[in-house]
Structure formats: structure tokens, C-alpha cells
Specification:
Layout lengths: L1 H12 L2 E2 L2 H15 L21 H10 L2 H31 L4 H12 L2 H5 L7 H19 L6 H21 L5 H13 L4 H31 L8 H4 L19 H13 L13 H21 L12 H19 L7 H18 L3 H17 L8 E2 L8 E2 L9 E6 L15 E6 L2 H5 L1 H6 L6 H11 L4 E6 L6 H6 L2 E13 L5 E8 L3
Helix pairs in contact: 1-4, 2-3, 4-5, 4-7, 4-15, 5-15, 5-16, 7-8, 7-15, 8-10, 9-10, 9-14, 12-13, 12-14, 13-15, 14-15, 15-16
Length: 521
């Protein structure tokens, strides 16, 4: 309780979160889910519709009813739970490694993990990386507590492996980036799962799929029925939705360029943070973990080669299991993602993993204890978190002032341009319909849309919606971006220059809005 309250209080000392993703889709997604807007509006939010909105719903509800600082406190308190889970994981790992946990060291490595650059930069924000990380950590804790060698029993172990899979699957459904840990844990079962390793791996895998379907299955099915691709736009080369070009649309900006680079990519985090993040930061936790895990593996292999250590293949090995699960997950991340904030769970667990590896490398317990403590202190004092965008506190998280002359009983608002502006939608009357055109993603598809006009593309759908609407029309855009009138012309619209105004916001430079009229062909 003390730890969670401390992190909640610290979140209120930071400024209010106004990151791009919050403005782009997090705030709107919570509103849209609660008000069944997905079949009313045509809001692309940079084609992030595939994102499960369930995480955004409680934040939206909370922010609608309490002050902004209370929301930040609640977010920070939940994010602080990562430290609690890591503390108990450290106890399990160190108890099995050296025979008894060093409680002050367990607390130190947990705190060192919680003060990582990613965790601090996302504290009180809605990125959700350090909230879904709770799922990965809880799954590991459930598995390690239930399957360890001091609690034998096939049925018991299978039950805990399945429970861990369900937990992880539920959280993967909430944010797909967590799937890297499913691969790591499966491999860890095969290497350190004991005599039942295969059955434990199968039970975990099946349970993970069930958990995933429970939290995300209905949402993916709805997306498939609406668009022909459950994760639109991703992997449209496989699903081939007619709305978009048949490409994968995966973000490869941060992915290594070769297999060799993927093997050393975790070290890039330390030397070139911009390779793995859009914001600058400094954090040595994961590179140090990767280095110590490699050394620990080499040392153990050498000892086994000399027959000074005989591998125990019959019992579940918590330290080995954690190190293998984390290392494999990190390598999978290198290949498929490369975005640092997706490693939120691994960052907070890294000091515990480093200590575990150090105890396997260094035979002298006293040296290992103080060496682990020194590393924990080093990573804490050298950390520099990044910033995703914050503003001074206001009474409410989102405050939008809409001039009365733009309020009608019903209307359609056409959102134009690339900067995020969907955050203003919940402040309008629910009778309004919103259509988004000309965002960055769809602009990049302009050639495809023109070549396939009339074949059911996204732009065909948008044109039909705008053309068929019978009622007042408005056009809206972010002021500093300017209004691309030529884009409006494509949809047979023009703004009325004399009937324009501004929506004042506490989040972003004011939003321009004008009445619009239809123009002849």
C-alpha cells in the first residue's frame, strides 16, 4: 500500500499527460466504447481502431467524474503495483538461488526496477505499457510460486501454469505488444520446466489463447465483421480488407536491419536510445541484464562441461526459468518490435534478473549480494527518463469550450488534417456525427484510393457517408496545421469563411471550426 501510494503521489507531482496517443485515440476510444460510437462515427484515429478500448474505459469514466490529479494518482498507484510483484518474484528467485532471500536486497532491486526510465516517463499517463506489464509479472509470479521444486505435484503445476497463461492472455488481449512474453515463457518451460516441461508448456499455451480470446475475441470479431481485417491495418496483406492496400503496415522504424543486429540490439538501448524510442532517455537496466544473462549462461555451461555442476532436469528451476523467459522475450522484441516502451515489464524486472544472474556467476554470496546492490544503485543514479508531452494541471483532464453558434440539435463534423483532434469529440452533443479525412495514414494511401475508386476502399466509404448526410455540416482542424482546402474539395465541400470560430482547449493549441457547404461537381 505504501509503495502504490508513493507512486500515485509522485504522479501528481508531474505535469498532466497530453501525449500524442492520448489526443489521437485513447480519450476517444473510452468515450466511443461507452456510447457505441464505432457504428456512428467514421474516425480513423490513424487507423488504430484495432486497439482494444477496454483499458481506456476506466480512465475515461474516472476523468469524467473526478479531478485531473485524482486520475493521475490512481494511474500512478496502479502502475506502482509492478514493484510489489517484482519484490515477490525476487524473493522466489533469490531463495532458490542462495537458499534464503535477502529481503533488503529484494526491496532494493524492486525499487531499482520501478525507477526505470520507461516506468517514470509513463507514470500517470495512458500509454498503458506499465499497466499491462502487471499481467506479465503476475503470470510469472503465479507460475514460479506454483511450479517451483518445493511444491511438487503434476496437477498443481499444470493448474498454476494454466492460471499464468490465462492471466497473460487476458492482458495480451488488452495490448497485443505483451505477446512477446508468451513466447519467452513457452521456451522457458521447455528448458527449465522440470520433468513435466512439455505438458506445462502446452497447458500454458492453451490457457494463454483462452485468456486472449476472452478479453479480445469479441472485439477482433467485430473488427473483422466491419472491415474484413480483425487488426486493421496490420497484416492487410494476409486479410486483404478492401478498405486499404494489401500491405503489412507494421512499424519497422525501430526494428533491427539484420539477424546479427537483432542479437546485439539490446545493447543499442544504452548507446543510441533514439534507435528504440521517439524520445530521448537513458537507462542501463536491460543492457546490463542481457550482458549478465549471457555471462551466467556461459559460466553454467562451463561448469557443466567440467562436471562441477550437474544440471537438475527433474525439477522446475525458478532462476533459470526467469532468465530464459526474459532473454527469449527480449530477443523476440528485437526481431518484431524494437520499441523500448514495449519492454515495460522487463525493465522493472531487470534489476532482479541481474541479481539472479550475479548469484549464479559469483560463488561468494557476500560478494554477490553487495555486487547486486551496487548495480542496483548504479542503474538508479544514471537513469534519465524521457518526456512524452505534459502540460500544467487543470481542474479536469479534458476541458473544451465550444462556441454556442456551433451547437445544433444534430450535425456532421468533418475532421481534416494530420494532427490528432479526436479528443474534442466527447465534448460535442452525442447527436453529432464525426468523419475523419486526410489523416497521415490515409494520405499515404491516396494513390491506392484513386486507383481503386469505386471498389469499396476507405475513401469510398467516407465519400458516401459525407454525401448521404442530410443536415448541418461543419469542418474542423488543428489551427497550427492549417486547413487543406484542396482535400475538402475532393469531398465536394467548402468552408464558409465568415462562419468560423475556435474551440479553446486545455490540452492542445485551439481547434478551428467552420460551417461547411456542399459545392457542385
Amino acid at each position: 500500500m505504501l509503495v502504490t501510494c508513493a507512486f500515485g503521489a509522485y504522479a501528481t507531482l508531474l505535469k498532466k499527460d497530453v501525449n500524442f496517443d492520448f489526443l489521437n485515440y485513447h480519450w476517444y476510444n473510452g468515450y466511443a466504447f461507452l456510447n457505441n460510437r464505432y457504428d456512428v462515427d467514421s474516425i480513423n484515429v490513424q487507423l488504430r481502431r484495432f486497439v482494444n478500448p477496454l483499458l481506456d474505459v476506466p480512465v475515461y469514466l474516472l476523468a469524467q467524474n473526478v479531478g485531473a490529479k485524482v486520475v493521475a494518482f490512481c494511474l500512478g498507484a496502479v502502475q506502482g503495483l509492478n514493484l510489489v510483484l517484482v519484490f515477490y518474484l525476487a524473493r522466489l528467485a533469490l531463495q532458490e538461488t542462495i537458499g534464503a532471500p535477502v529481503l533488503w536486497l529484494c526491496a532494493m532491486v524492486a525499487i531499482a526496477g520501478g525507477l526505470g526510465a520507461n516506468n517514470l516517463s509513463e507514470l500517470g499517463t495512458v500509454f498503458m505499457d506499465n499497466i499491462v506489464s502487471l499481467g506479465a509479472l503476475a503470470a510469472l509470479l503465479t507460475i514460479c510460486a506454483g511450479c517451483r521444486s518445493k511444491t511438487p505435484g503434476t496437477v498443481r503445476s499444470l493448474g498454476f501454469a494454466s492460471a499464468g497463461g490465462i492471466i497473460l492472455g487476458l492482458f495480451i488481449g488488452l495490448k497485443l505488444t505483451l505477446a512477446i512474453y508468451a513466447v519467452g515463457i513457452c521456451v522457458a518451460f521447455l528448458i527449465a520446466g522440470g520433468r513435466q516441461r512439455l505438458w506445462l508448456g502446452i497447458a500454458f499455451s492453451l490457457a494463454t489463447v483462452l485468456g486472449f480470446l476472452a478479453s479480445d475475441g469479441a472485439w477482433l470479431l467485430k473488427n473483422y465483421m466491419d472491415t474484413g481485417n480483425p487488426i486493421l491495418p496490420l497484416y492487410n496483406n494476409v486479410f486483404r480488407s478492401p478498405l486499404l492496400e494489401p500491405l503489412s503496415f507494421t512499424d519497422t522504424r525501430f526494428v533491427p536491419k539484420s539477424t546479427l543486429e537483432a542479437l546485439y540490439y539490446p545493447f543499442v538501448i544504452a548507446v543510441d536510445p533514439h534507435r528504440v524510442s521517439e524520445v530521448l532517455f537513458r537507462d542501463f537496466r536491460i543492457p546490463l541484464f542481457y550482458a549478465t544473462s549471457i555471462i551466467a549462461g556461459a559460466v553454467l555451461a562451463n561448469r557443466m562441461a567440467r562436471k562441477s555442476v550437474r544440471p537438475n532436469l527433474s525439477d522446475f528451476q525458478t532462476p533459470t526459468f526467469l532468465l530464459v523467459a526474459a532473454t527469449v522475450s527480449l530477443l523476440v522484441w528485437s526481431v518484431v518490435a524494437g520499441i523500448y516502451r514495449y519492454l515495460a515489464a522487463l525493465e522493472v524486472l531487470a534489476p532482479t534478473l541481474i541479481a539472479t544472474a550475479v548469484f549464479l556467476i559469483v560463488p561468494n554470496r557476500r560478494v554477490a549480494v553487495w555486487g547486486s546492490a551496487a548495480i542496483a544503485i548504479f542503474v538508479m543514479v544514471t537513469t534519465v527518463p524521457g518526456s512524452w508531452g505534459r502540460k500544467e494541471w487543470s481542474k479536469r483532464w479534458v476541458e473544451i469550450d465550444i462556441p454556442k453558434n456551433f451547437l445544433e440539435s444534430r450535425a456532421m463534423v468533418v475532421i481534416v488534417g494530420t494532427p490528432p483532434s479526436s479528443f474534442v469529440i466527447p465534448s460535442f452533443p452525442k447527436s453529432y456525427v464525426f468523419v475523419q479525412v486526410g489523416d497521415t495514414f490515409t494520405l499515404n494511401q491516396a494513390v491506392y484510393f484513386k486507383q481503386h475508386e469505386g471498389q469499396g476502399t476507405l475513401y469510398d466509404k467516407l465519400r458516401q457517408r459525407i454525401a448521404s448526410y442530410n443536415g448541418p455540416l461543419f469542418v474542423m482542424w488543428i489551427a497550427r496545421a492549417g486547413l487543406p482546402d484542396a482535400l475538402l474539395y475532393e469531398f465536394k465541400l467548402a468552408r464558409r469563411q465568415q462562419e468560423c470560430g475556435r474551440l479553446e482547449s486545455n490540452l492542445y493549441p485551439y481547434v478551428e471550426i467552420c460551417r461547411a457547404e456542399r459545392i457542385a461537381n
